[in-house]
Structures
1.
Amino acid sequence: MKIAPFKLERYFDKYEFSAPYLLSSSDCEPLKLNELLRLATGKQLEEWNSLRLGYTESKGDPELRKEISKLHTSITPDDALVLVPEEGIFIAMNVLLKKGDQIVTTFPGYQSLYQVAAGIGCHISKWEPDQDLEFQIQDLQSLVTNKTKLIVINFPHNPTGRTVSAESLNQIVDLARQKGITIFSDEMYRFMEYDITDRLPSVCDLYENAISLFGLSKTFGLPGLRIGWLTTRNKKLMEALITFKDYTTICNNAPGEKLAIIALENKRQLIERSLEIIKSNLSLLEAFAQVNKNWFVWKSPKAGSIAFPELIINETIMEFCQDLVKKKGVMLLPHDVYDFERPHVRVGFGRKNLPEVLNVFEEYVKEKGF
């Protein structure tokens, strides 16, 4: 399979570890190892200190899968497959699709959610938000045909931070069920809604032919563990996913799985930690947006650690972002890396140093004369 370069990851590779100020990170403030281990029980610390660095169960540590099942209403430990989040997308697309299939996907989005399918030879239909960055169900309905094999959704959405109502989600599920279409639901920002009334159920709990993707990278502030999982109630599909994994990582890293168990047993504390950081930073960004509303058009997110404001400026967004990182060391993510035509940037506000980064950004804005 020939697959196009991952533009977002190539851009991050260029600046993420060289730019001193990141204003586009998608994760929340990462925990330190000692912070996570302080949450461990005595037994867990004993297991950690005596951990053998051998092969692990391909499907995932049974205790970890048990904790994953607790995040759901209808998922059992056998319905979960532990893997690297990106790996989960790659495996699912290869299992579900063949050349000539049509998929409908939320767009813009994480490139692998549609690029892997494109590499397989599928036809891609993009479900884009309106000018207010709201995803309208009628737009999705107009894209689905009798040839549609897969609907790919991502709520809460990256990069807009938007979501849909429970009613709209049920409409998506009903549409898929009526037409016999599988749903792949990227739920990496689950539990990060600012208002709990906006929280959605996992799609795999609503629909027997859905696959949900979740993990520790965003909500829990643990991207370095490289631990995520796929969940589905479709037993035949789960067996196909497990079988394909034999050609990718085979099994998961033992330290990551043990630390993941500790994290999920303390999920409420870690979720509250992330939300506290996000909400504090969000108020600063909204104040900045209000002062600069003539050119920085704020589109309020409802969940997650990212937003997608529109910039009204007299240069391209790419020129603006590259000048900013060159002169001030502040990294913003231009819409170009999403192949999205509208002039937006992704702003990340899950890190504790957001106030410092925002001050440097404001210096640049003043120097530009905005």
Note: The first strand starts at residue 21 and ends at 22.
2.
Amino acid sequence: ERNGVKVFEGEAFLKSEKNVVVKSASDTIELFAENIVVATGSTPVQLPGVPFDGKFVLSSKDMFSLESLPNSILIVGGGAIGLEFASALSKLGVQVYLVEMMEQLLPGFDKDVARILSRALSRLGVKIYTSTLLSNYRILDGSLEVRVSGPGREETFRVEKVLVAAGRKPTTLSGLTEAGVVLDSKGHIIVDKMMKSSAPNIFAAGDVAGLPYLAHKAFKQGLIVAENLAGKNVLYNFRAVPNVVFSEPEVVSVGLSEDEARKNGLEVLVGRFPMQASGRALTEASPEGFVKVVVEKNSLKVVGVQIVGANVSELAGEASLAVELGLNVRELASTMHPHPTLSETLMEAAEDSLGESVHVFKRRI
């Protein structure tokens, strides 16, 4: 409002491609605009047969309204949201059970990263069930009896709460299709690289415009929309969209993983540097984890970076810069990094991809 923006609180829907109706408890207002930007975000996915009730079965939003910590909780979903809550709650003394239907935690992430994270969470006391589903639950005497099932096994136990962290879905705005806006099968607004929808005056940004559901992606898309509305010609065309999981330890993934690069037909070099060889990680008593740099062999371009370790989210910016610019790995390796910092682990991994690492011993055959 201090920037001259008029704010109307209430529930909105499109009356036409240039008219928005806002309903509040006390009033209904119709607004006219030459251009409309839809940035309605996303909401947690509710699993079939497991409805949110805000008391026993919770969404990630409900978690922030708890007045006290439960003694125990089952988290359904081993993606970023589930792992962040599992890390935080276990460190606060909550007994956490974590169920993931896929074979590994963080499906789609580097398998080596997932393995490190699984081991760290187990040490925190989290009981992890992969390739497992929540098959049934019932409320008994103020808690829940839950049954989880996987290949050849089934287990029943009691918890105080269930958190469903099985993904998110776009929050759609009523009237979009009537205004000529085309949606995909998931309900996202289909946009071009200027963030414009099929209706020429309706733009979209953030979660409602498609995956990935990340705040920094939404910020960038919002800026691009604003610049294009101001008459510029700016495209959303990023090669690197950093994905950071604020778990314990943290995870950074930018660009292609080693497996993804090979599946895309690339011949790659892979450099790796363990945190146990980092002076900074050792002084902070956090030697678990590693940095992995994935390099296209012929061009020596950095195509991906995966990191797991304490406080590694601070390395996501440099990793993104390397992938976004298609940096030659020799440039990353030859750039002087300060010692002792976590940032030099990127330099060391780059050196390792070239077979020039000084601080990682490799046995000669």
Note: The mean pLDDT is 95.
